[in-house]
Design a protein that fits this description.
Blueprint: H1 2-10, H2 46-49, H3 52-58, H4 61-86, E1 91-92, H5 99-114, E2 123-124, H6 127-156
Antiparallel strand pairs: 1-2
Helix pairs in contact: 4-5, 4-6
């Protein structure tokens, strides 16, 4: 315990530090108290200043999870529309009779393909439908890899503690 007290007494941080020993010669803090960078990008086009990665890291948890969920629903809807445009008769094993039921089955086939679950009742027949299903499975792998990376980055991001804990 005494060692920790000695280390903590030596590790006192200045309240207004940048990355150097004397922040007054640099201007202002380089890192804000909440852990975000205090850097402004200047001299580059507006869209090059945006970082989708950092936007996803900094958005509130409920917005992040909602965005992932809505993206999942939207991508499956797009692929279900593609399957319907090609023709659901090229999906073997469908039991639906009405156009609405056929679209719903195409949507759930899309969800199963996107997540690579593949229950096996519905299967693509024909080259075009098989190509679309293979592309969707590949897209699903990329989607979940990116989502997993963002989840990990959000949970493993270091956070500054308030001054109460020092």
């Amino acid at each position: 315990m005494a060692i920790l007290r000695r280390i903590n007494s030596k590790a006192k941080s200045d309240e207004n530090t940048g990355f150097g020993t004397n922040s007054s010669m640099y201007g202002d803090r380089l890192v804000n108290r909440d852990g975000r960078a205090n850097v402004r990008k200047a001299g580059i086009p507006y869209f090059n200043r945006l970082s989708w990665y950092h936007t996803m890291l900094e958005m509130p948890r409920w917005k992040f999870l909602s965005l992932i969920f809505i993206s999942f629903l939207f991508v499956n809807l797009v692929f279900a529309l593609i399957y319907s445009a090609i023709g659901v008769e090229h999906l073997g094993g469908m039991e639906a009779t009405t156009p609405g039921e056929k679209f719903i089955e195409a949507y759930f086939f899309s969800a199963q393909t996107f997540t690579t679950v593949g229950y096996g009742r519905i299967n693509p027949t024909g080259y075009l439908m098989s190509f679309v299903a293979a592309f969707e499975a590949f897209s699903g792998l990329l989607f979940f890899a990116l989502a997993t990376g963002l989840f990990y980055a959000r949970f493993s991001r270091p956070q500054a503690f308030p001054a109460i804990y020092r």
